[in-house]
Amino acid sequence: MELRHLRYFVAVADRKGFREASRFLHISQPAISKTLTQLEQELGVALFARSGRTVRLTAQGEVFYKQTLLTLQQADHAAEAARRAARGEFGTLTLAFCSVATYGFLPRLVQQYKELQPGVQILLREMNPPQQELAFLQREIDAGITRLPFSKKLAPDLEVKSILREPLVVAVHAAYRFASRKLKIEDLSEEQFILLQRNGAPTVYDAILGMCQKAGFAPRIASEADFMQTLFTLVAAGQGIALIPACAMNQRPPGVRFLRLQHDDYRADLILAWRKDSQPSTLQSFIRLVDKECKAIRSDARQLLESAGRAKS
């Protein structure tokens, strides 16, 4: 028994004749008649009482008709569900994110995605870049908003979309004053540095050391923090200064202000990454949304950076 047999049966029952069903289905009358005779033989019951050119359902045909309508309706629903799943309208999307880097835009992005794809469950997992790399290798996440670069082992397996390139800014105690109005990296040579631990932010950690080395000094590291909030607490307590990606200013910690650096060439790359060989349909709609929102994300980042002051004498 095939679905087409059931559709032929319903067409004949609704139109009370093979000729009318033939016109409706655009299938020859003999083909329909033969198919339904085979159906009756398969079931072992007579579905129709034939009288000339008209037919009517038998008692058993009436029962079969009601159940057939339910079966066809469910089949149509199943087919539509499959098509919607193929379009990414159903399913799950597991997204990893760096909390500080995405604080300014991820909540809005997730809300927009939910409005576009209400049938998709989005699972958010906070992970730093090294944790995301491991999760990609173990296929635990569909995508991640993270920092470049990736290891040579993983990089060839990933597709990436650039979201944002941002400079580092200097986080200082709110009452701190530098001597120069134009703050340069070499002006920090005598300062106590507070860094995020390298195992959580290796790219930024190495960039800071490289910037200092290029300026001719090694940073005096007073302490290393596990989390950005801990780093801000130490800065607000006057324990030192910190170089951080500009996006971290979104947290607006009390007792801390931010200063711009002059002639800083380093940019922290924030990207959306996903595996080339594993692209669930739910991911495609998210990628398109990120692509659409990148302009707004970058505009917000520029405005945030403009809010950082210069050093004052």
Total strand count, please?
12
Number of helices: 10
Biggest sheet: strands, sense, closure?
5 strands, mixed
Shape: rod-shaped
Helix content: 40-55%
How are the strands of the biggest sheet laid out side by side? Answer: 4-3-5-12-6
**Assembly state:** single chain
Report on the architecture of this protein.
Pfam families: HTH_1, LysR_substrate. Keywords: DNA-binding, Transcription, Transcription regulation. This is LysR family transcriptional regulator. InterPro entries: LysR_HTH_N (IPR000847), LysR_subst-bd (IPR005119), WH-like_DNA-bd_sf (IPR036388), WH_DNA-bd_sf (IPR036390). Belongs to the LysR transcriptional regulatory family. The protein is an alpha/beta fold. It contains ten helices and twelve strands. The termini are far apart. The mean pLDDT is 87. The radius of gyration is 32 Å and the shape is rod-shaped. Strands 4-3-5-12-6 form a five-stranded mixed sheet, sandwiched between helices. Strands 10-7-11 form a three-stranded antiparallel sheet. Strands 1-2 form a two-stranded antiparallel ribbon. It has three domains: 3-86, Winged helix-like DNA-binding domain superfamily/Winged helix DNA-binding domain (Arc Repressor Mutant, subunit A); 91-165 and 269-300, Periplasmic binding protein-like II (D-Maltodextrin-Binding Protein, domain 2, 3-Layer(aba) Sandwich), CATH 3.40.190; 166-268, D-Maltodextrin-Binding Protein, domain 2.
